[in-house]
Amino acid sequence: MKKLFPLLCLVAGFSSAASAADISTMQNLAQSEFRLLSEDLGSALSYKPLAPAEPLGITGFDLGLAVTSTDISKSSAALAKASGGSSPISTLIIPKLSVAKGLPFGIDVAAFVSAIPTTNIKLVGGELRYAIMSGGVVLPAVAIRGAITKLSGVDQLSFDTKSLDLSISKGFAMFTPYAGVGQVWVNSTANVANLSNESFTQGKVFVGANLNLGLVNFALEGDRTGGTASYSLKAGFRW
After folding, report:
1. 33: Cβ contacts below 8 Å, ≥ 6 apart
2. Which pTM was predicted?
3. What is the model's pLDDT at position 20?
4. Confidence of residue 149 (pLDDT cuts 50, 70, 90)
C-alpha cells in the first residue's frame, strides 16, 4: 500500500505533463469544435462513483486516491487548438483525492478535489447518496445518487456537471461488484465572444468492483458517458 500511492501520483503526473497544456486560446475554436470538446469534457469530468451501493454506516469512512483515464480522441484536435497549438492527445488523465462519510438512515456524503499537473484545470465534486436497500446476506444494496462537479482555474471556460444515477451492488466476502445507470447534465460556457453556451445531457452506465482487505481498500471502475469511455482506479482506506 505504501508503494501504491506514490505510483498512482507518478502515473497521473507523468501522463499529464507529457500530454497536456493550459486551455487559454478558446477563441481558436469553431462552435462545432467547442461542442465536441464539451462532450468529451462532460464524460471526463463528470462524477465517477468508485464505490458500491451499500451505505458506509454511521461510523464509516472512505478515503482514497484515484486516477481516471478518459478517451478524448474525438476532441483531441479541438483541445490542442484551445491549448495554443499543443500536441493533440487522445487520453486525459485526472488524479483525484476523495473522502466519503457515512451518515444515519443509509445516507452517505462524499467529495473530491483534483488538479491536473502542468495545466490550469482544477476540479471539485461531491455526491449525496441514499441507500434504498442497504443489502445483506441475500439481498443486494440499491442506492440513488445525486452528484455535481465544477471546473475552475480556466479563465476562458466555465464548466460544470450534474448527475443522477441508480446503482446496485452485492458483496461476496471481501469482493463487491457493482453497476449503475444514470444521466449527466453538462453546462459549458466559453468566455470568449465567438462561442455560444453548450448545455446538453449524456446517458451514463458504469460497472466496477470493490476489494476490501480489512482497512485497505481498492476499487476499479469502467464508465461510459455520452459514448465516451473512462477507466478509474482508486486505492485507499475504507471502514
Report:
1. 75, 77, 78, 81
2. 0.90
3. 56
4. very high
Going by the DSSP 8-state scheme, the letter that residue 140 receives in this structure is: P
Nearest-angstrom CA–CA distance, 89 and 106: 41
Cell numbers for 136, please give them. Answer: 445483506
Q: What is the H or E stretch that residue 202 is in? A: strand 198-213
What is the helix (H) or strand (E) element at residue 146, kind and residue range? Answer: strand 141-152
The residues near 6 (Cβ < 8 Å, ≥ 6 apart) are none
Q: 107: closest CA among 49, 146, 55?
A: 55
Instruction: Pull the grid cell for residue 139.
Output: 439481498
**Where does the pLDDT of residue 174 fall: very low under 50, low under 70, confident under 90, or very high at 90 and above?**
very high
Helices (H), the chain: 4-19, 31-45, 76-82
CA-to-CA dists, residue 46 to 27, 39, 96, 119, angstroms: 24, 11, 12, 18
Write down the number of H helices and E strands in the chain.
Answer: 3, 10
* Mean pLDDT computed over 67-72: 96
Q: Which CATH number covers residue 191?
A: 2.40.128
Nearest to 134 by CA among 114, 106, 104: 106
Query: Quick check: 47 and 129 in contact, CB under 8 A?
Result: no
**Domain limits for position 68:** 4-238
Q: Which of 155, 97, 119, 98 is nearest to 16 (CA)?
A: 119
Question: Does position 39 have pLDDT exceeding 80, yes or no?
Answer: yes
Indicate the SS3 state at residue 118. coil
Domain count of the chain? 1
CA distance 12 to 115: 10
Nearest-angstrom CA–CA distance, 15 and 88:
13
